[in-house]
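Q: Hi! First time doing this. I have a protein sequence and I read that you can turn it into a structure. Is that right? Here it is:
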Amino acid sequence: MFGTIRVWLAAAVSSAVLASGAQAHEVTPSIADLTVNDGQVTLDIRANLEAFVAGIDLTALEDTNESDASDEYDRLRALPPEELEAEMRRVWPRFAEDMRIITDLGPVKETLLDITVEPTPDLDLPRASILHITAELPPMASSVQIDWPASYGALVVRQQGVENPYTGYLTNGTPSDPIEITGGQAQTGLQAFLSYIPVGFDHILPQGLDHILFVLGLFFLSTRMGPLLWQISAFTLAHTVTLALGALGLVAVPGSIVEPLIAASITFVAVENILSKGFSPWRPLVVFVFGLLHGLGFASVLGEFGLPQDQFIPALIGFNVGVEVGQLTVIAMAFLAVGLWFGSKPWYRAYIAIPASAVIGLIGAYWFLERTILA
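A: Yes, that's right. Below is the predicted 3D structure, encoded as structure tokens:
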């Protein structure tokens, strides 16, 4: 029985290792800036074009290495800008069918004006390119709607050039609300708060594998509720502070520093789980320090697509609430999977907590090397 449990745990967490990869393969949301001038609607979409060209379904995907088309994605990643642009133009008809601009008087025909591709891509990071798309609006049209397929991942829509602009976060193939051309659809505080909760949750489940492993490292220290609550409270307080400071632009630390340290934090808590005999007095302080790092990681996600300036604080709070709900979901899943059934067993620590912590620590160590020496 013990051997079966250990094999199950090793297989489960090893699958997570295989599903992870370099930062270049991380799935990030696309961003669309919407402008209407002189009867024309323009969309400037900043996106990972390699995934679109390769035909990768980004629905609930964290890493392009999980796709059967990952080899094609890697080939496209290595292309010079002009060749990637040619590849995107080749698949443009398919893209134009999938992504639609619809007015209150019906759909319009999109035209690809230009493609801006990062000239010297860093193969360790996702390459950002911009599609410049335009369409003629029917006379008397008063609103537009963006229909974005789920297979293209998440899309942030930001209206430009009007007062009280619309901001939306599209997932699961849900189209945007009708966007009034003249503006006036800025979110209320409550709407911003509610709309950014799923953004924060999505960054934990399914996209935040490093944060998931850190939270699991906290879970496997002890089966008692007290130690877990102390750790979660310290972690929450810390990452809330640096998330707010980072989102406000008061603190900025390069990802090249933050990401390796986050990986090191995963290994540290896992090793301490193995070596310690229980909840130590310094554990909350250690978790708090590492929480500061994770908060900077969360802030970098928000920096990718920004927060609505007129409802900055409600959106920031909503994002943080989403992160907390995601973390608590991870803990609840871990408890239902092993804690509920085996947590009170005398062999739980020896045959579940320690092996799981060892695998988590190895993953963190591998990521640390990948993000430093192997970068």
